[in-house]
Amino acid sequence: MTGWLTVVGLGPGAASLITPEVSMALAEATDLVGYGPYVARIPSRVGLTRHASDNRVELQRARQALDMAAAGRRVVVVSSGDPGVFAMASAIFEALEGAPQHHALNVRVLPGITAMLAAAARAGAPLGHDFCAINLSDNLKPWSLVERRLRLAAEADFAMALYNPRSASRPDQFGRALDVLREACDPSRLIVFARAISTADERIETTTLLEARPEMADMRTVVLVGSSLTRRVGRHVYTPRRAV
Amino acid sequence: MTGWLTVVGLGPGAASLITPEVSMALAEATDLVGYGPYVARIPSRVGLTRHASDNRVELQRARQALDMAAAGRRVVVVSSGDPGVFAMASAIFEALEGAPQHHALNVRVLPGITAMLAAAARAGAPLGHDFCAINLSDNLKPWSLVERRLRLAAEADFAMALYNPRSASRPDQFGRALDVLREACDPSRLIVFARAISTADERIETTTLLEARPEMADMRTVVLVGSSLTRRVGRHVYTPRRAV
User: Fold this and answer.
1) Residues spanned by CATH 3.30.950.10 within chain B?
2) Is the confidence metric ipTM above 0.95 for this complex?
3) pLDDT per residue over A84-125, tens digit each?
4) Would the CA dihedral through B29, B32, B38, B40 be positive or negative?
């Protein structure tokens, strides 16, 4: 048996947002590797072994997946959203970099619906013009770099998607991020808090930078910040295609 | 019959990248509206009327779709990729803004796999850290704004996805964009040219800023520019999660 490793994105939560390509890979897998809650989204079946792990052990999980594929298993590594956006794909290549004996392995990445696109669709089209995606977690980069990128993104007048805005271990940083935005943007700037989109816990709230409070975000929220042109129409929020 | 309008993303090309949610909306539609080549991707069936139009008539197409939904039709507007990323969703809300009589209509957006995520997955994980998406077309914004955003994105050390890099009517601007990047980035900066990903015409090429030539891109290409940390491992390109 020739093993392979495929990193897949399960989208934001609903089964109807999983691509057929990903479903086919899952149907062919012998082993499922990932963070517990993501592995739990895939139904059990005979012939499929589950390897669920804790958060923050991405590299260890990636090495385990590579080793299993090298041993002939058909391994699917599951991510929420898209595997290439603040998720498992980079960890897999990092592990591969440290394991030259695995460089000939069949490693593939299958895209998924990332949180910002699901959130934007629910809100309207707030990312309808140039935009950026910034991970607010400083687990793997200095906080000063986060602030610097926020300032430059505001200067470029990008719409922004802010991933991992706030967690129990980082309760205060999102407030600092809002402060940086307040220095650079008008108080009327629109902000969308999109939580657990497409799941039973979905909640979406549009407010302004003036009214935004850190408590509006938690670890299941993606925050969309409009550009200077983003506006409301009816219950929707959108950024026009035209910027003049 | 209660009409509705749903804007859907068909992904980059392959049917296996269309979400089940979008397939369900297509199955319920009475009318299909969009740019000819995208409408042509959906099989004909009894009860489905096709309204294919030229490129660059987005607003007119959007108004037509709203009017049909208001008249009780079940209208699906098709975009390539994700409808909220340089596609039809913003045009729909722009048309809605000018038509207050339609504000109570049931208008929804269903996300899709946008070109940059399909391209990134094929290449490895070049967007695995903070990144931005910039539309290089100056049809709806001044070219000076494109250059300014490229400079600020380089200063922020974002990875970048460049949409619509080059077309018959804009043959020279992508070369100017590369010049802007050359002023700001090291010549060894990795660049991925991803053309028509997931179709029969798929072609992917990784090179450096030094070796990049405007002719490597056309209107079916999305260009991914790495951050300063983006590197190769085996035949893959990835951006590490850690930035220190």
Assistant:
1) 116-238
2) yes
3) 999 999 999 999 999 999 999 999 999 999 999 999 999 999
4) positive
**Distance (Å, rounded) from C-alpha B22 to C-alpha B15?**
11
Enclosing H/E stretch for B175: helix B173-184
The residue among A120, A111, A35, A117 whose CA lies nearest residue A78 is A35
Q: Residue B47: name the closest of B21, B20, B76 by CA.
A: B76
* pLDDT tens digits, B200-226: 999 999 999 999 999 999 999 999 999
Partner-chain contact B93 A14, CB within 8 Å? no
CA-to-CA dists, residue A133 to A138, A161, A222, B142, angstroms: 15, 5, 10, 23
- How far does CA B179 lie from the centroid of its chain? 23
Q: Do B121 and A156 lie within an 8 Å CB cutoff?
A: no
pLDDT in tens, A214-223: 999 999 999 9
| Residue range(s) in chain A whose domain bears CATH number 3.40.1010.10 | 4-113
Q: Identify the CATH assignment for A116-238 out of 3.30.950.10, 3.40.50.300, 3.40.50.12780, 2.60.40.2340.
A: 3.30.950.10
pLDDT the model gives residue B134: 98
Q: Determine whether domain B4-113 maps to CATH 3.40.50.360.
A: no
Best of A23, A108, A130, A158 to mutate (most B CBs within 10 Å, chain B): A130
